[in-house]
Amino acid sequence: MQLKRQTAYKFWIGDLLSGEQKLNNDGMRYFLIRGKDVVRVNVISVAISMYENSDAKYAAITLDDGSGNIRMKVWEDDFKILQGIGLGDVILVIGRLYEQNNEIFLRPEIVRKMDVEWMKARNAELKREHGSPSIVEDKKLEVIEEKVEEKIEPSVLAREKVFLIVGNAPDEGIEISELIARSGMKEDLVEKAVDELLREGEVFSPRAGFVKLV
After folding, report:
1. Cβ atoms within 10 A of the Cβ of 170, count?
2. Per-residue pLDDT tens over the stretch 4-20
3. Which helix (H) or strand (E) holds 76?
4. What is the domain count for the chain?
5. Which residues make beta-bridge pairs with 100?
6. 164 is in which domain, residue-wise?
7. Are 96 and 187 in the same domain?
8. What φ, ψ does residue 120 adopt, rounded to 5°?
9. Is 2 within the bounds of a domain?
10. Same domain (yes/no): 35, 87
11. 3-state class of 140 per DSSP?
12. pTM
């Protein structure tokens, strides 16, 4: 069974930084970018700087595709997403756009090392689709982090686990109490993940106490 996800749009990083965050009637966060309502993005870029808190509770990698810099950030449980990624690597990132403290950043769902030829091909694709990039500078990215940034709940891995369980549930959906039991995670964490997925339109509630994949 192929699970349906929000479209991961391909844009220049400069486009992402120019996006305007909005809320729909259901409270779902999205960014208006080039006339599209964007939640997830697909970016190929170079890791130009890396920061990890000494307690291993927060990490940020600054990405550059020639149009601007954006950071992808992870907290605690999501650290494993960055395994094997080093400074100077060309990487593919599929993830969600967020804005916090007036900074637009990425929460990665998938991170993969790529050959530089993939980045050249992506840049050519973006030039055909959107034209040459307008360069966007963000001086905030030059500041060295000195503290753990406020964690955004739930973790990406928690969301993905909940999404997969719901996606493999029977046609009538799955009761939230059963979802909690199957996940092996704390009740409040599952409920937060379900709430986000509901607001983002990836799952819905066919009846009280149940959720189902859209």
Report:
1. 7
2. 678 999 999 999 999 99
3. none
4. 2
5. 103
6. 156-213
7. no
8. -60, -40
9. no
10. yes
11. helix
12. 0.76
